[in-house]
Amino acid sequence: MERYSDKDFAIFAERIKSEYALAKEELRLLRDQVNELSETMSQNFGADMGEDSSSVSSLELLNEQVLRKRDHVQALQNAMLRIKNKVYGTCSVTGKLIDRQRLEAVPTTTKSVEGMRLEASGQLDITAQDIARRAVERREGPNKIISKIKKPPPPPRKAQPKKRKKPGRKPRRPVEEDDDLI
């Protein structure tokens, strides 16, 4: 499987660490704003309905921003973990290297543009693990690889006895009677 060099990983790690520190600070500020707004709302709630609805919508907006920022912080932590495991920059769909420009634009990405297109189009039938396994099989030969998971054989089909028609008369059709009610 292709991967970036240790020097590249160090450059990516520095970039992610700086973004992580900035995101953590922004998250702290947003949480402080939520706490401050919650306190002011509890003190003056009910005085003016227009102001109350405005405060509630502002609080909802801030909470959404906190959730988004928290997800971003988590994604940055995951990216650092991928760097530590030396799989950062490898597409989770195709198994190929993600373009450096894409990683600089979106350092938390796990998919290349090609991988995203494949996934979005529904043409994706194999994963990066399948690609990696096939690469290993090509290097070592298919006979040296023993699959850990073996599919059980399908259950045997039960033979259905054929129904034979008895020789003889055809069944009678019921006679429809005309009901003249008029």
From TrEMBL:
Residues 13-79 form a coiled coil. This is RNA polymerase-binding transcription factor DksA. Residues 159-172 have a biased composition (Basic residues). Keywords: Coiled coil. It comes from Neolewinella agarilytica. A zinc finger (dksA C4-type) spans 91-115. The lineage of its organism: Bacteria, Pseudomonadati, Bacteroidota, Saprospiria, Saprospirales. PROSITE patterns: ZF_DKSA_2. The keyword Lyase does not apply.
